[in-house]
Amino acid sequence: MFAQRISTLSSSIIREILAAAQQPGVISFAGGLPAADSFPEPNWAALPPQIKQYGMSEGEPELREAIAAAAREKGLQCEASQVLVISGSQQGLDLVAKLFLDPESPVLVESPTYLAALQCFRLFQARCVGVPLGETGPDLAQMDAVIRSQAPRFSYLIPSFQNPSGLCYSVAARQAVAALLDRHQLPLLEDEPYCELDYDGVAKPPICSLLKSAPWIYQGSFSKILMPGIRVGYLIAHPSLMPHLVRLKQASDLHTNRPGQWLALEYMRSADKQARLAKLQDFYRLRRDAFAKALAEQFADLADWQVPSGGLFVWLKLKRPMDTRPLLKQALANQVAFMPGEAFFADDEPPVGYLRLNFSHTPPELIEEGLRRLRQVFEEAYAAQAVTA
Ligand SMILES: Cc1ncc(COP(=O)(O)O)c(C=O)c1O
Q1: Which residues form the Aminotransferase class I/classII large domain (predicted)?
Q2: Does residue 88's CB lie within 6 angstroms of at least one atom of ligand 1?
Q3: Do 338 and 285 lie in a common domain?
């Protein structure tokens, strides 16, 4: 009865965990939720009446101008005509997948990568091929080998404070990746929803700005710097790709919601935008630091990790690897939630022994208790393993 692709449509483990994690009393390190205390209170009464009407598929012209100007400040040379306002950066994944993918098309992704991107690409029956991440960026030799052997349709990278690993590519890695993509003329989808959540002032030129000839799409979002509920993001594309992406957007939902775009433009124009961002960064830096301290106290003997310079996540690698997926049930029974790391790998048989912990959502006074509960889950699992061994 249904289209073939529906058989590949898995339910998102994220959505399931988020539902369980919202039970009262559960301390959740699972989702990627920005802290609600940071959301501004919109003055909806000031919404101009014309905004209630249908709008343009490309997005509000003034917002497109503002987005292009901000991208130029990051070093990405572009015009407003290259900006498409989308319903969250999640929609960009869908549009780009529709543009490039046929059944069985290979896509180059990071290993690990954003779970909902895997879900989206797989819906188009793509074959996601992972390239391992090292300490400063992807393994370039493996990336080159994947491009040569698999001929992917495009590459999907999250270079700044990656979800789930927290990795921020070094400038040298960005340059090397750009050179590699140029050499193979491989299109790049660069997904940067965490770029502004930078707590240590890291240099991070967009890889798209370093490309000389490969086609590119750069994505950003207002979800993490303003609020995710308005569902406003943007993509900026090489001029050759724009007409196709605009038509795909039109076919998908006509245009992004206009009150949300209005709010995003108010934010972009606000005189205190920089101060608001700095406040947000201070807020998250404190949470990151509180989390790092509690993690060092509770998990130093169980796992290894790097404290991230930005974003929302810490990525843990267990010293004694075990599949963390079956532990989620026990964790929820213990009133704590985490994200099993295995789900973020493209492989059919993913490597085991990883977990992703969100540090932005839990108030500092609950972090220690949450990590204590989580530690107990792992201690019990290791003890049970020892009994059965
Ligand atoms: C890497 C990545 N891309 C895209 C998204 C989707 O964000 P948006 O709220 O802009 O749709 C997320 C959300 O967490 C993400 O982590």
Answers
A1: 45-374
A2: yes
A3: yes
pLDDT per residue as tens digits for the range 107-120: 999 999 999 999 99
Run of H or E residues at 355: strand 354-358
Return phi, psi of residue 157, to 5°: -130, 150
Between helix 115-123 and helix 89-100 the angle, nearest 10°, is 30
Same domain, 180 and 70: yes
Specify whether 210 is located in the same domain as 93: yes
Examine the domain organization and report whether 156 and 255 are in the same domain: yes
CB-ligand 1 contact for 166 (6 Å cutoff): no
The answer to whether residues 246 and 223 touch, using CB atoms and an 8 Å cutoff, is no
Quote the pLDDT of residue 15.
67
Between the CA of 294 and the centroid of ligand 1 the distance, in Å, is: 27
Banded model confidence at residue 74, pLDDT cuts 50, 70, 90: very high
Q: Are residues 173 and 78 in the same domain?
A: yes
CA distance 162 to 267: 25
Q: Is 221 in the pocket of ligand 1 (CB under 6 A)?
A: yes
Query: Does the residue 27 lie in any domain?
Result: yes
Domain extent at residue 222: 48-269
Residue 211 near residue 178 (C-beta atoms within 8 A): yes
Please indicate, yes or no, whether residues 262 and 279 belong to a single structural domain of this protein: no
384: which 2 tokens?
């049970």
Confidence of residue 12 (pLDDT cuts 50, 70, 90): low
Same domain membership, residue 175 and residue 315: no
Q: Do residues 287 and 355 share a domain?
A: yes
